[in-house]
Structures are given as structure tokens and as C-alpha cells.
UniProtKB/TrEMBL annotation:
Top-level division of the source organism's lineage: Bacteria
InterPro entries referenced in this protein's UniProt entry, alphabetically: Metalloenz_LuxS/M16, MPP/UQCRC_Complex, Pept_M16_N, Peptidase_M16_C
Protein name (database record): Insulinase family protein
The organism of origin for this protein: Luteimonas wenzhouensis
Signal peptide: 1-17
PANTHER family the record matches: METALLOPROTEASE, PROCESSING PROTEASE
Domain Peptidase M16 C-terminal: 205-379
UniProt keyword terms in alphabetical order: Signal
Length: 466
């Protein structure tokens, strides 16, 4: 799961530093942050093990469904099939035993909504929404997609062609190549390192392989259905029983992903990109899982350090030094582990200096207490973003389902903001010391060695990759 998303790094160019905005002195103080109201969640488990959570909401006449399937994501992909889960999820709604992809899309549209699916490290989310007047047929359609995907030959061929085209476009981007090297340096041979497909892994996908994966990965005893909207819980339980009650597992369950490493020997990798006028810098290491006691302090620390325009690394590298259009740093977390990542795309002539500024900010955060106002501003930023995101019922359903995939309880939804507010400067400094020590970070650089290699000498011996 990634509750905190890294700020985008874009093409580097000189920028003009601007002074801080001066606000009128008589502005009223901010109002206190409000926690999300504790959602009323009615729960029931069907005899086959499927959990059903219903979140009644007043508002628009709409119902949102999210079905989460644990251990069905990239963590279940074999070593020779990187990125398989993403293609698998994308093809779930492209045909069932009863309807082709067009019939599915037309049915969903006729109910006033749509269907979608996506894969993460820890599972697959299949979502649907409809007008409440069509809650029953939409849930039946969702069950059909989840239980009876056909993976038709023509749709699989089209999906593979599209995936291959997307991969080739991505491989031309230095950020994609940097991410691949950093994932390998961070997670080694753990499944979390294998989220990016290869041409060979895409070519190896067949309808039969997809059907086998579905039989193994999709099973009611590892599934959660979250329903939010203007609905009556007892009616939803009745509909869920009708749509899913006779669903049974048909294959051996996949083994859960093992624990991801918490430490890794720091790597130094220089990926050659002939003629590049900029250097793509990525720094990282293994970190903590979403269920770790330090998860909430880590999210706040990452935001303060590199999670927004006003963050320290962005203010330093962009606003003060003019090295880049954007610099970021933060955490990405999953059920069995997580990682730190920082990065920026900078002009060739400042590649070494930019690395030094990253390390300077990491050391400063580890050594000096965060000023009270800066800490408060970042708490408000994190809390406000979370509150805004989870105002919509579809977002509430998705957050509950995503949290469940990574092992977080439903109560986490409403406790997150109060827990952010309780983080203190000592906790932030402790997180920085544990996870942003420069000596423990891998450094990946994509660029033209002729232009940047000399600047990298003080950071160690770099392995060159063509």
C-alpha cells in the first residue's frame, strides 16, 4: 500500500528561486483539525469465508463496491513472471463465461456506473459503482467478473500487445530504468522487486496461465467485499449471499509473500544513457511494513522531508539551488515490508552536488529537532489531504479495502488523523536516523557516464549498466 505518494520528479532545468510569500498579519488562526467520523461498519462473514463490510452513507443515490483479494498481487508472481498481476487484473473485466467485454461495459453503463480492477504488491482490487436503484444487478455483475473471468484469446492478445507497447515506451524513460535498478537493490529476489514486466514475461502470458492464476489466487476465504452508499446493511448481506454464497475455492491457495528484507547492502549503479543532458538520481533502502508501529511517524517524516512542494528537499534543490523542477523523498509500504525512496532529475553538471544536498537534508533532519511550526504545518498538510480524500464514499470503500490488504484494521481509517497529530519532533528525528542514514542508502544514477561519472567518485564505486 502507498498511502503516501512520492512527488513527481520531472525534467530538470534552471528555475528562478522565489522568496517566501508574505501573508497579511491579521489572518485568523486555523481551525482545529477534525478526525474522520468513525464509520458505522456492519460486518458479516459468509460460510465460505468471504468477509462483507457495509458502510451506510447518506448523500447521493449511489453504491460503491470494492472487492479485495489478498495474496493475489505481485507478491504471488513467480520469479519468471514479473508484472504478471497487473496484466491479470486488467483482463478480469474483458470477458466472462456469459458476456464479452463490450457487454460488460454496456451493462455497467446501464446501471449508471462502471467496473475496474488493479493490482498491488499484496492483492487485487475489483471495484464497481452504480445508482442505488441498480445495486442488485451491479453486484451480480461484479460477482460474475470476480468468479467467472474467461480471459478470451482475442482480449488476452490485445492486452499483451498494449502491455508491450506501454513497456517499450516506459523503457525509454530514465525514471523507469532507475526504478527497476532501485527495486532490485532494495528487495533483491523478494517478489516486491518484480512489479515491472519484461518483454519475455508479457510474451509468456497465455489464457491458460491466466485461468490457472485465477483458480489459485481468487478464493472467498481470502476476500473482503466493502460496500458503501445509501444502502441497508441487511439487504446488502442478502445480495452478497445470493451473488457469492455458493462460491468455493477451486485450487491450492498461493503461499503468502515472505517478509521483505529490512536491511540491504547499499548498491551503487550507473545506468548508461548516451547523450543524456540530465542525470536521474534515485536513493533508497528497505524500510518498514504498513503494520509497523512507526508507520504513522514515518509517513509524516517522509512528507516533511520530500512529500510536497514545501518539503525540505524540494525547497533546497529546486527553490534554493535551482537544480531541478522537483525533488521528492518518502516511504512506500506494503503488508510484508516497505522501502524509502528519494530522487530528482537534475542537470548533468550538478549531479554530484545534488546528491550532496540530499544527504545534507537527511543528516539535518536526523540531528536537529524539527521546529514546532514546521511540524504543525506538515501535520495539517497530511491530515487535510487524508480528510479531503476520504470525503467521498467510494474513497472510503477503497481505503478500507486497501488497508485490509496490508493488514490494517478498519479502525485505522478514523484513527489516522489523531495519530498524525500525536507525532512529535523526537519521533521524526528517530525515523530519519533509522531510515535516511546516507551510508545505508543505495544510489542509482541514469545518465551519460562521460558527463557525470567524475562527480560520483566520492560516493563509491559504481557498477555500470548499459
Amino acid at each position: 500500500m502507498q498511502l503516501f505518494l512520492l512527488a513527481a520528479c520531472v525534467l530538470a532545468a534552471p528555475v528562478i528561486a522565489a522568496g517566501p510569500a508574505v501573508l497579511p498579519p491579521d489572518l485568523p488562526p486555523y481551525a482545529p483539525d477534525k478526525p474522520l467520523p468513525v464509520p458505522q461498519i456492519e460486518r458479516r462473514t459468509l460460510d465460505n469465508g468471504l468477509e462483507v463490510w457495509v458502510v451506510p452513507r447518506d448523500g447521493v443515490p449511489r453504491v460503491d463496491y470494492v472487492l479485495a483479494m489478498r495474496d493475489a498481487g505481485h507478491g504471488a508472481d513467480p520469479a519468471d513472471a514479473p508484472g504478471f498481476a497487473a496484466l491479470f487484473a486488467g483482463l478480469l473485466s474483458e470477458g466472462t463465461a456469459r458476456r464479452d467485454s463490450r457487454a460488460i461495459a454496456e451493462a455497467a453503463q446501464s446501471y449508471g456506473g462502471g467496473v475496474a480492477a488493479s493490482a498491488s504488491n499484496d492483492g487485487v482490487l475489483v471495484s464497481a459503482n452504480a445508482l442505488t436503484s441498480h445495486a442488485a444487478p451491479m453486484l451480480s455483475l461484479l460477482a460474475e467478473i470476480v468468479r467467472e473471468p474467461a480471459f478470451p484469446d482475442n482480449e488476452v492478445a490485445l492486452g499483451k500487445a498494449n502491455a508491450l507497447q506501454s513497456l517499450r515506451a516506459a523503457q525509454a524513460q530514465p525514471s523507469f530504468r532507475a526504478a527497476r535498478e532501485l527495486l532490485a537493490a532494495t528487495f533483491g529476489d523478494h517478489p516486491y522487486a518484480r512489479t515491472q514486466p519484461t518483454e519475455d514475461s508479457i510474451a509468456a502470458v497465455t489464457p491458460e496461465a491466466l485461468r490457472r492464476a485465477h483458480a489459485q489466487r481468487f478464493r472467498p476465504d481470502r476476500a473482503l467485499l466493502v460496500v458503501a452508499g445509501r444502502v441497508e446493511p441487511e439487504e446488502i448481506f442478502r445480495l452478497a449471499q445470493s451473488a457469492f454464497g455458493d462460491w468455493t475455492a477451486t485450487g491450492p491457495a498461493p503461499d503468502p509473500a515472505p517478509a521483505a528484507p529490512r536491511e540491504a547492502a547499499p548498491a551503487r549503479v550507473l545506468v548508461q544513457r548516451d547523450g543524456s543532458v540530465q542525470a536521474t538520481l534515485r536513493l533508497g533502502r528497505p524500510a518498514l511494513a504498513a503494520t509497523d508501529a512507526d508507520y504513522v511517524p514515518a509517513i509524516l517524516t517522509g512528507t516533511l522531508l520530500g512529500g510536497g512542494f514545501s518539503s525540505r528537499v524540494n525547497q533546497n534543490l529546486r527553490e534554493d539551488k535551482g537544480y531541478t523542477y522537483g525533488a521528492s523523498a518518502g516511504f512506500s509500504t506494503s503488508r510484508m515490508g516497505g522501502r524509502v525512496q528519494a530522487g530528482a532529475d537534475v542537470r548533468n553538471e550538478v549531479a554530484g552536488a545534488a546528491l550532496q544536498e540530499f544527504f545534507s537534508e537527511f543528516r539535518r533532519l536526523a540531528q536537529e529537532p524539527v521546529p514546532e511550526q514546521e511540524l504543525l504545518d506538515n501535520k495539517r498538510y497530511v491530515a487535510g489531504g487524508y480528510l479531503i480524500t476520504n470525503q467521498l464514499q467510494g474513497a472510503v470503500a477503497s481505503t478500507l479495502a486497501s488497508n485490509w490488504l496490508v493488514g490494517l484494521p478498519p479502525e485505522f481509517l478514523s484513527s489516522y488523523v489523531p495519530r498524525i497529530q500525536q507525532v512529535d519532533a523526537d519521533q521524526v528525528r528517530g525515523i530519519a536516523r533509522r531510515y535516511f542514514d546516507p551510508k545505508d542508502l543505495s544510489i542509482i544514477v541514469v545518465g551519460d557516464a562521460a558527463a557525470i561519472e567524475e562527480q560520483l567518485g566520492e560516493y563509491g564505486q559504481f557498477r555500470k549498466v548499459e
